[in-house]
Write a structure and sequence with these properties.
This protein has 301 residues and is α/β, with parallel strands linked by helices. 31% of the residues lie in helices and 33% in strands.
């Protein structure tokens, strides 16, 4: 199996419009969305951001996952994962891989693209507004067993495997441009975000409203905090626990359904999973409703 990754790289135009980047590849004589193969030891999220930089010259922050495209190259099966990605600083320079870049309205980009699969990815992109607001809900990494810990449960720390999970998570949070951190006041939750906090120079702020018991007692307060985080100036990652996260994701999905705009997701939102070390990428529209919810069972995707 060959794995590759790419994105619909977009930039804002006017009050609520967007242009997307389409590149010409002289080697293939085609017009394509920027994408490329995953290098050994690289996650697909890493590869998507790297390929965007190499093929377009622009830094990018990932948003929602759009789809995986499957096809055959010779005798090999190939899977290409695509994200929505907002363009940051950069400038296109023609090269051997890509000799032309055009910023186009999505409909114009679709008309230019050579492959139907790329056009389907653009269709997925336009199914929701471009400028969605992102919150990452992170389940804490592996901690020691409660029965083997003699101290207060709030002080139960991560085990070695959990610390390794936290290190991998730090690299993933960077891909989403996380600029603020919150955690349930439990040692294991705080430690899960520590590697990224240290690397990014951030402070992990407390979020007691997202604790398991707190979500059960006052779900409205927990939902209000998630809404506040979505409205913040920076993308926030919040680390919580295994009962509260599914409840929150399920309630957010129910709100969107009740408003007649069900959220897109790669999982059943009536039974949201929350494995230790996993995370949800929650994307909110301008109306404050959940527009998309992508679940990643670990930080190796």
């Amino acid at each position: 199996m060959i794995y590759a990754a790419g994105a619909v790289l977009w930039r804002p135009v006017g009050d609520d419009g967007a242009e997307v980047a389409v590149v010409h590849r002289p080697h293939h004589q085609d017009w394509s969305l920027p994408k490329g193969k995953v290098d050994p030891g690289e996650t697909r999220a890493d590869a998507a951001v790297r390929e965007l930089a190499e093929e377009t010259g622009f830094a990018a922050v990932l948003g929602r996952h759009l789809r995986a495209v499957h096809y055959t190259v010779g005798s090999d099966d190939k899977t290409v994962d695509f994200w929505s990605a907002r363009a940051g600083d950069g400038r296109f320079t023609p090269g051997d891989e890509t000799d032309e870049l055009r910023w186009l309205a999505p409909a114009e980009a679709s008309a230019l693209l050579t492959y139907a699969s790329d056009r389907e990815v653009v269709d997925d992109f336009t199914a929701r507004p471009a400028a969605l607001r992102t919150v990452l809900l992170v389940r804490h990494a592996l901690a020691g067993r409660r029965t083997e810990w003699s101290g207060p449960d709030a002080d139960r720390p991560l085990v070695e495997e959990g610390r390794e999970q936290a290190q991998r998570l730090a690299a993933m949070l960077a891909r989403y441009g996380v600029g603020a951190l919150r955690a349930v006041p439990k040692t294991r939750c705080h430690q899960t975000l520590e590697p990224y906090a240290e690397a990014a120079g951030l402070t992990v702020e407390p979020a007691p409203e997202l604790g398991d018991g707190a979500v059960e007692r006052d779900p409205e307060a927990a939902l209000a905090l998630v809404g506040k985080l979505a409205d913040g100036a920076a993308v926030t990652a919040a680390c919580a626990q295994g009962d509260g996260i599914p409840r929150l994701v399920g309630d957010l999905a129910a709100q969107a359904r009740a408003a007649g705009a069900p959220a897109l997701s790669n999982r059943d939102l009536d039974d949201p999973p929350s494995r230790k070390g996993s995370f949800w990428v929650l994307s909110f529209g301008p109306d404050g409703l959940l527009a998309a919810a992508d679940y990643h069972r670990d930080a190796t995707f």
